[in-house]
Design goal:
It contains 13 helices and 2 strands. It is mainly alpha-helical. The N terminus is likely disordered.
Length: about 350
């Protein structure tokens, strides 16, 4: 059962924060997303959004462990049922976006994106059980079938590009490939060693390594996370250099700003928000933790303290800001970045708990 009090961590490296409030916020937002008309898809399923649904799926199991909950929440089960249905009816259901309605090449982009996200979410849940399910194995099989085998993006996937940074824009195909690497690394049963996928892994590794120098710090940070369980993605020198860059980007208040992790320009002409935000801070701290940087490290400790101090105690959320246009953070669409911020803040704090 959830408590109403803040989770009091046993050490200074894991400061107090309100896990129950965070769970309440994330459950509410995912329930809203799945019921929102624009997110509806055939068969009673819902689009797996990068900002809300994916972030929820990655973070909610971590919250459950902190709260001592014995089973997935009803919202989690509804999400997993939707994904399972789409995997099971992959050839029958239409892509999230189609060439006919949204213009070419949206069908291919949508298929590639969904295939990777389905495999990642299902692998994350299977990692709790310690066994790869038949549905997750089927999701991986679909993803491998869509992996690009030629061209400059050989080894990656077609990825949705609506010119919405940082997840659906130029360069987001690399981010998608890092998520595929995360999925493979977390899949239980030593899936990463299965002979049948070694050629696919080789292509993925070559793509991630070969395109590394051209990537934003944002994409490189997700690769740092992926490299924790997927060997050969970063050299020791690259990892050391990247960790040093992240340390240097930490702001005076202990947080990180997404604006500093890439070159972003808002299409409405407003200035990208430079203050520390929950998404960049949560991502940076979590990736560093996954790279075996101890919580006592000053940069990690200060990042965790920033997260604990900047949770909205009323709503349970952490705030982050659109890279694409200035938005009202109190609206449902304006909360998309805060959905991701809350999820990654939770992941970083739960890792230290």
């Amino acid at each position: 059962m959830r408590g109403s009090a803040s989770i009091e961590a046993p050490a200074a490296s894991a400061p107090a924060w309100n896990a129950a409030a965070a769970a309440g916020y994330l459950d509410k937002r995912q329930a809203w997303w799945m019921g929102w008309q624009p997110a509806q898809r055939e068969g009673g399923t819902a689009c797996v959004s990068c900002h809300t649904a994916l972030s929820y799926a990655l973070s909610r199991p971590a919250l459950r462990r902190v709260l001592g909950e014995s089973a997935p929440s009803p919202v989690e089960r509804a999400m997993l049922d939707s994904i399972t249905q789409r995997v099971s009816h992959w050839t029958e259901f239409q892509p999230f976006y189609t060439d006919a309605k949204d213009g070419a090449p949206k069908s291919a982009e949508s298929r590639g994106t969904e295939a990777v996200l389905n495999a990642l979410i299902l692998a994350n849940y299977d990692s709790e059980r310690g066994k790869l399910s038949d549905t997750t194995r089927a999701a991986f099989a679909v993803a491998w079938s869509l992996q690009l085998k030629s061209g400059e993006k050989k080894g990656a996937w077609d990825w949705l590009n609506f010119h919405n940074a940082p997840w659906e824009a130029n360069g987001s195909d690399y981010w998608g490939a890092t998520l595929a690497a995360v999925a493979i690394g977390m899949a239980p049963g030593n899936y990463i060693s299965e002979p049948a996928i070694q050629d696919n892994l080789k292509l993925l590794r070559q793509y991630l390594k070969g395109s590394y120098q051209a990537q934003s710090i944002f994409n490189r940070t997700v690769l740092l996370w992926a490299s924790a369980r997927f060997p050969g993605l970063l050299t020791a020198e690259q990892q050391t250099a990247l960790i040093g860059v992240l340390y240097n980007l930490q702001q005076g208040d202990g947080g990180w700003s997404l604006a500093s992790m890439g070159t972003w320009t808002r299409r409405d002409g407003t200035q990208v928000e430079a203050r520390s935000d929950g998404y960049a801070t949560g991502l940076a701290v979590f990736a560093l933790e996954r790279a075996d940087i101890p919580s006592a490290q000053p940069q990690i400790k200060r990042g965790l303290e920033w997260l604990a101090q900047n949770q909205d105690r009323t709503e349970g959320l952490w705030r982050a800001y659109s890279l694409n246009k200035q938005r009202d953070l109190s609206t449902d669409i304006g909360r998309f970045m805060s959905d991701a911020a809350t999820a990654y803040a939770v992941m970083a704090l739960a890792q230290a708990h």
